[in-house]
TrEMBL record:
The record marks H140 as: Important for catalytic activity. Residues 186-282 form the 3-hydroxyacyl-CoA dehydrogenase C-terminal domain. Residues 5-183 form the 3-hydroxyacyl-CoA dehydrogenase NAD binding domain. The lineage of its organism: Bacteria, Bacillati, Actinomycetota, Actinomycetes, Kitasatosporales. InterPro entries: 3-OHacyl-CoA_DH (IPR022694), 3-OHacyl-CoA_DH_NAD-bd (IPR006176), 3HC_DH_C (IPR006108), 6-PGluconate_DH-like_C_sf (IPR008927), 6PGD_dom2 (IPR013328), NAD(P)-bd_dom_sf (IPR036291). The keyword Oxidoreductase applies. Gene3D superfamilies: N-(1-d-carboxylethyl)-l-norvaline Dehydrogenase, domain 2, NAD(P)-binding Rossmann-like Domain. This is 3-hydroxybutyryl-CoA dehydrogenase.
Length: 283
C-alpha cells in the first residue's frame, strides 16, 4: 500500500471520521491529539460509529475490533515520523494551525504531503509556515466522513500538480472521489453553505420562522436531506461561527457578519449535537 501509515492530527468529530475511514480501508492510523480526555472520547465515538456503520451497511465486512486495532491513539507528535501522508483536522483557528504545522514540518519526512482539512482557512497561508509549501493541499472532507463519497480538494498557490495527483491517489485508497478548486476563503462548499446557515440563523433571530419550519422548507421544497440549521448542529455551532468569522475577516464584506444569535448560542455552550442542544434538541 502506497500510504501504509497515515497521520491524523486532531481527534475531534472530523479527525475521528477520517481515522475511521482510513482504518476501514486498511491503513494504519496514528491519531494525535493534545488531550488524553479527547483521545478517550475519540475511542468511544469510534466504537459507536463502527457499530452504526455495520447496522446501516448490513452487507459490510467491517470488523469493529479489527478497525480499532489499526488506530494508534497518542499524545506524542513524534509518532508521525513514520507517516506516509498526514491529514490535519484541528480547530478553525489560525494560531492553533500555525503551531501544528511548524511542529509536524520538523518531524515528518520532507516528501510527505500535508492535507489541511479546513472549512475556510487559506491553504497558501498554511503552506507558508512549512518548508514544503508545494506539498501542502486542502482536503475538505464532509461529515460523516465514512459515508460521504466526495472531497473538495483545494490547490494552494504553491501546490504542485504532483501533489494534486498524490492527493487523488490517497483519496482513491479511501474510496473517495475529488473535485479540485482554487484557494479562496471558504472555497466552494463553505462560501455558499456558511452564508446559508448564517442567514437561516438571522431568520430565527428575527422571528420569521422557527428552526423546525426553516429546516422543513429546505427538506420538502428543495429535497435537501437536512435543513441548514440541522446541518449547523451536525457540524457544530462553534465551528460554524469560526468559519463565518474567517470569511468576514477575509472578504471584509458585511454579508458574512455572524448573526448575533449564533454568537450568543456558542457563548452559552449550545453547540449542536456534540453538546446535546443547538437549534434542535438531541437529548
Amino acid at each position: 500500500m502506497e500510504f501504509a501509515t497515515v497521520g491524523v492530527v486532531g481527534a475531534g468529530v472530523m479527525g475521528v471520521g477520517v481515522a475511521q475511514n482510513l482504518a476501514q480501508t486498511g491503513h494504519r492510523v496514528v491519531l494525535v491529539d493534545v488531550s488524553e480526555a479527547v483521545l478517550d472520547r475519540a475511542r468511544a465515538e469510534l466504537r459507536t460509529s463502527l457499530r452504526s456503520f455495520r447496522l446501516l451497511n448490513p452487507g459490510s465486512r467491517v470488523d469493529p475490533a479489527e478497525v480499532l486495532g489499526r488506530i494508534e491513539f497518542t499524545l506524542d507528535y513524534q509518532r508521525l515520523a513514520d507517516a506516509d501522508f498526514v491529514v490535519e483536522n484541528t480547530t478553525e483557528d489560525w494560531a492553533v494551525k500555525e503551531e501544528v504545522y511548524r511542529r509536524i514540518d520538523a518531524i515528518c519526512r520532507p516528501e510527505v504531503v500535508f492535507a489541511v482539512n479546513t472549512s475556510a482557512i487559506s491553504i497558501t497561508r498554511v503552506g507558508s509556515v512549512t518548508g514544503r509549501p508545494e506539498r501542502v493541499v486542502g482536503m475538505h472532507f464532509m461529515n460523516p466522513v465514512p459515508m460521504k463519497p466526495m472531497v473538495e480538494v483545494i490547490r494552494g498557490y504553491h501546490t504542485t500538480p504532483e501533489t494534486i495527483d498524490t492527493a487523488t491517489r490517497f483519496l482513491a485508497g479511501m474510496g473517495k472521489e475529488r473535485i479540485v478548486v482554487e484557494d479562496v476563503p471558504g472555497f466552494v462548499s463553505n462560501r455558499v453553505l456558511m452564508l446559508t446557515i448564517n442567514e437561516a440563523v438571522f431568520l430565527v433571530q428575527d422571528g420569521v420562522a422557527n428552526a423546525e419550519d426553516i429546516d422543513r422548507i429546505f427538506r420538502t421544497c428543495f429535497d435537501h436531506k437536512m435543513g441548514p440549521l440541522a446541518t449547523a448542529d451536525l457540524i457544530g455551532l462553534d465551528t460554524i461561527l469560526k468559519s463565518v468569522e474567517v470569511l468576514y475577516e477575509s472578504f471584509n464584506d458585511d454579508k458574512y457578519r455572524p448573526a448575533p444569535l449564533l454568537k450568543k448560542m456558542v457563548a452559552a455552550g449550545l453547540l449542536g449535537r456534540k453538546s446535546g442542544q443547538g437549534f434542535h434538541s438531541y437529548h
